[in-house]
User: Which sequence fits this backbone?
């Protein structure tokens, strides 16, 4: 049996970004993108760093999607944090890079 999955029609890229800002993980609150990388190992490294500091986060891999995406999103990993934690998460990443 085949099953047809209907995907929402996206009018522009901003609509996609706004959809992610609302709730990427199913958790309450507003989430914002902290980090974007094409490398899976780097995404997991950053997530581990956030875990170490007790910062809530959500990893969104766009590596293997069933529906069409724009070329700048293909093979990308997004790391989202709650808006309230953004400045703390940025300082942790900045300190790790130095």
Assistant:
């Amino acid at each position: 049996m085949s099953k047809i999955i209907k995907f929402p029609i996206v009018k522009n890229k901003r609509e996609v970004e706004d959809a992610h800002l609302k709730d990427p993980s199913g958790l309450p609150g507003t989430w914002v993108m902290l980090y974007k990388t094409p490398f899976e190992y780097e995404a997991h490294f950053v997530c581990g760093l956030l875990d170490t500091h007790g910062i809530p986060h959500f990893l969104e891999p766009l590596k293997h999607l069933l529906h069409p995406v724009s070329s700048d999103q293909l093979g990308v990993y997004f790391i989202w944090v709650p808006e309230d934690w953004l400045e703390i998460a940025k300082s942790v990443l900045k300190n790790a890079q130095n």
Observations:
- The first helix runs from residue 13 to 22.
- The chain has three helices and three strands.
- The chain has one domain: 24-97.
- The radius of gyration is 15 Å.
